[in-house]
Amino acid sequence: MKRTRPWGNPVALGNLSSGQTYWWLLPYVNIRLFNKVLADFAQHFGISTKKQVVLVVDQTGWPTSEPVVIPEGIYLEFLPPHSPELQPAERLWTLTNEPIANRSFETLDEVEEVLIQRCRQIIDQPDFVHGLTNFSWWSELAA
Fold first, then answer.
1. Which residue, 12, 13, 16, 15, is CA-closest to 138?
2. Residue 106 DSSP class
3. What is the pLDDT of residues 71-116, one digit of tens each?
4. What pTM does this model have?
5. Integer distance in angstroms from the first to the last C-alpha of the chain?
6. In this model, does residue 41 exceed pLDDT 70?
7. Side by side, which strands form the sheet with 21-26?
8. What string of H, E and C letters represents the secondary structure of 25-54?
């Protein structure tokens, strides 16, 4: 779980076959921060030309913009426009929203701490994440 200040948007990358997740809590999402997440993700998991991954991303502005820096060994696969139902990570947002919904907080730090704890709980539940995000047709695409 990486965090930057101030809190904002959870960003999740996951392994569909294992349910393992990798989280950043960002103040906002833009190309500079997306590049930082990709670089840290590659370093954290030892991604290189010998260990390659495909990241499935939607077509929001920041992953499709020209200055995106994609580390060696990472390949982006873009979903069709306006298709959030195809993005496995979309199913994780209800999990991150649940502990903050219908609550009031005195400070943003309190909200951030609740989100961080929730992301840590999700990291510790790869079987549950796998069940939510491993759409049956993903394995057919990988073949």
1. 16
2. S
3. 999 998 888 888 877 778 888 888 988 999 999 999 888 988 999 9
4. 0.76
5. 31
6. yes
7. 2-3, 21-26, 9-14
8. EECCCCHHHHHHHHHHHHHHHCCCCCCCEE
